[in-house]
């Protein structure tokens, strides 16, 4: 009998046996799995059992149902270890493994480097296959793209195989990372022998197995109809289990042999190295991201401190400027009254009047009075500019915030432009803002500010003296777009697919880390958005950031 195990939320570790044909999950009293929290709809989701298979569907809930981190659409078959998210609750679907009493192990092979037969037997064929696979594996570090294409190549290398699987190992949990099949119906059935896989991982050996009873009786080993398979471990240099590579067949053709096991094991060593290197690369990227975030946090703290220190005296000076303007107006009225007494002074104090007239001419009183007004006006403009800089620093200091908030992105864009304006002025690059009113959207404002800042600094660097960088915003249906255009040298078509790769840069050594666009791409993707570029050599570049107005789950994407 299958179970739902609550792994997160009130009542964690509780188990719910799926002993009915149809079980409803929701807040309504009396349902099979009762979750009494406001984030859960009264009738939220439903699990149905049909012919020993379990299916999950959302019942039109307000907040949605998520399967393995993705929004549930329609009716989906459940697999063992699937994760189901409903509001603050997370469940794991556990299904007992099918019986494998008829399973016969045809061959075993140690994948340890001390096993010399692994490298000696049919060395020429292995070398050719490994070189072909190595060339393929060197093309990318994106496993979501690389592993399925690897399986397609393996299906071509092993004509008797109907399907290929790559399983990743996370502690005791096994997850199908990639699957490819010659038959679409087989690809959907991501089943495997847990008994064999556990042994492969535990003992570090490759295995060829078949279901002899199924072959004789015309029945199938498992629900997918697999009759023979070859399975090899993917191991790290330290002997740590990374996963499993499996090829299987379902038709009445010849079984896999010991030679097939030798060849697949040789290939699995290369795949293991790529998996480990990819994990190390991901860790390196994470370390660099953490370093960059820490550096940005220090900059933000410095900016916040400077803004605070400037803001206090700025308030004093601004207030004093207003007082001075008020007092000057009073003095001007007093002088007007004195000037009205010139006739009386000429009669009763001619010497005093003569001295006053000489001083008036010496200081050019009319000009001085007029100029004082202009000086105070220029002072007010300067203080206003300082206030804008302080506000920009305070907005920029939000870079270390991590919570999502509803904001007007235009304000953050203006602060990013304010911060980069001095750099643009040094390069004699004009910054142009073309901002249209935007709906408030839920996001991490600090991260979006970082994206705009990265795009602006790259655009300024790309421009020659006298160039122009334009920042434009608009709000098409259901989204917000940020456009950053420059009049720089543009991007070569051969480099366009690489600009978002980590550590890729066209700047001179020491001038850039090659992480700005990579980090920006990750931030936009985590917000459920997209970032694209349009460019021709010599005609500048046009980056377009598109973000959904509705708060999205991490990893979701915006429809084109």
Mean pLDDT: 77
Instruction: Detail the poorly predicted runs.
Output: 212-222, 551-560
Distance from first to last alpha carbon: 42 Å
Percent of residues in helices comes to 40-55%
The shape is: elongated
Structural class: alpha+beta
Number of strands: 24
Gyration radius, to the nearest Å? Answer: 35 Å
What fraction of the residues are assigned to beta strands by DSSP? Answer: 15-25%
Largest sheet: 6 strands, antiparallel
The helix count comes to 13
Question: Strand order, biggest sheet?
Answer: 2-1-11-10-7-8
Explain what the structure shows:
- Helices cover 42% and strands 24% of the residues.
- It is an alpha+beta fold and 560 residues long.
- A six-stranded antiparallel beta sheet has the order 2-1-11-10-7-8, with no helix packed on it. It has a six-stranded antiparallel beta sheet with strand order 12-15-16-17-13-14, with helices on both faces. A five-stranded mixed beta sheet has the order 4-3-5-6-9, with no helix packed on it.
- Helix 9 (350-363) crosses helix 10 (365-396) and helix 10 (365-396) packs across helix 11 (409-426).
- The longest helix is centred in the middle third of the chain and has 82 residues, at 258-339.
- The two termini are 42 Å apart.
Gist?
With 560 residues, this protein is α+β, with helices and mostly antiparallel strands.
Task: Describe how the helices and strands are arranged.
Elements: E1 3-8, E2 15-17, E3 22-26, E4 33-34, E5 45-50, E6 53-58, E7 65-67, E8 70-71, E9 75-77, E10 83-86, E11 89-94, E12 103-110, H1 117-120, H2 123-137, H3 143-157, E13 163-170, E14 173-181, H4 184-188, H5 194-203, E15 205-211, H6 212-217, E16 228-235, E17 241-249, H7 258-339, H8 342-348, H9 350-363, H10 365-396, E18 405-407, H11 409-426, E19 430-434, E20 441-443, H12 445-462, E21 468-474, E22 479-486, H13 516-526, E23 530-535, E24 541-548
Parallel strand pairs: 3-4, 19-21
Antiparallel strand pairs: 1-2, 1-11, 3-5, 5-6, 6-9, 7-8, 7-10, 10-11, 12-15, 13-14, 13-17, 15-16, 16-17, 18-20, 21-22, 22-24, 23-24
């Amino acid at each position: 009998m299958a179970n739902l195990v609550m792994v997160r939320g009130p009542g964690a570790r509780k188990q719910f046996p799926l002993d009915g044909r149809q079980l409803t999950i929701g807040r309504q009293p009396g349902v099979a799995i009762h979750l009494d929290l406001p984030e859960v709809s009264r009738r939220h989701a439903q699990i149905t059992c049909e012919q020993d298979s379990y299916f999950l569907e959302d019942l039109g809930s307000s907040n949605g149902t998520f399967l393995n981190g993705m929004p549930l659409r329609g009716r989906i078959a459940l697999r063992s270890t699937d994760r189901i998210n409903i509001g603050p609750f997370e469940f794991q679907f556990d299904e007992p493994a099918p019986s494998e009493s008829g399973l016969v192990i045809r061959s075993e092979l140690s994948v340890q480097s001390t096993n010399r037969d692994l490298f000696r037997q049919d060395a020429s064929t292995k070398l050719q296959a490994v070189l072909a696979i190595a060339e393929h594996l060197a093309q990318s570090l994106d496993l979501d793209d690389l592993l399925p294409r690897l399986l397609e190549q393996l299906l071509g290398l092993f004509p008797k195989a109907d399907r290929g699987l790559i399983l990743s190992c996370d502690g005791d949990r096994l997850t199908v990372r990639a699957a490819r099949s010659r038959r679409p119906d087989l690809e959907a059935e991501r089943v495997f022998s847990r008994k064999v896989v556990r042994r492969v991982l535990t003992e570090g050996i490759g295995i060829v197995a078949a279901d002899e009873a199924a072959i004789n009786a015309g029945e199938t080993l498992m629900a997918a109809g697999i009759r023979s398979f070859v399975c090899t471990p993917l191991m790290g240099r330290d002997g740590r289990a990374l996963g499993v590579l499996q090829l299987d067949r379902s038709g009445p053709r010849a079984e896999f042999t010991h030679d097939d096991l030798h060849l697949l094991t040789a290939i699995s060593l290369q795949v293991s190295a790529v998996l480990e290197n990819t994990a190390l690369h991901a860790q390196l990227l994470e370390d660099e991201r953490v370093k960059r975030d820490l550096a940005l946090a220090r900059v933000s703290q410095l900016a916040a401190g400077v803004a605070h220190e400037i803001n206090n005296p700025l308030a004093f000076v601004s207030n004093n400027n207003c007082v001075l303007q008020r007092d000057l107006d009073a003095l001007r009225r007093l002088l007007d009254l004195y000037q009205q007494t010139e006739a009386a002074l000429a009669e009763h104090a001619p010497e005093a009047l003569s001295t006053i007239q000489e001083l008036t001419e010496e200081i050019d009183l009319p000009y001085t009075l007029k100029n004082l007004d202009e000086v105070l006006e220029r002072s007010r403009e300067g203080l206003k500019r300082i206030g804008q800089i302080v506000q920009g620093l305070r907005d920029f200091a939000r870079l270390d915030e991590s919570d999502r908030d509803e904001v007007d992105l235009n304000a953050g864009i203006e602060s990013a432009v304010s911060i980069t304006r001095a750099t643009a002025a040094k390069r004699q690059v004009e910054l142009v803002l073309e901002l249209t009113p935007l709906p408030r959207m839920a996001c991490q404002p600090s991260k979006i500010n970082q994206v705009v800042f990265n795009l602006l600094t790259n655009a300024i660097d790309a421009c020659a003296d006298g160039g122009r960088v334009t920042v434009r915003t608009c709000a098409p249906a259901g989204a917000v777009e940020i456009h950053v255009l420059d009049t720089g040298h543009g991007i070569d078509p051969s480099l366009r697919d690489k600009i978002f790769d980590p550590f890729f840069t066209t700047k001179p050594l020491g001038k850039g880390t090659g992480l700005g666009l990579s980090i920006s791409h990750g931030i936009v993707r985590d917000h459920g958005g997209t970032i694209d570029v349009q460019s021709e050599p010599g005609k500048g570049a046009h980056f377009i950031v598109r973000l959904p107005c509705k708060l999205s789950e991490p990893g979701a994407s915006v429809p084109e």
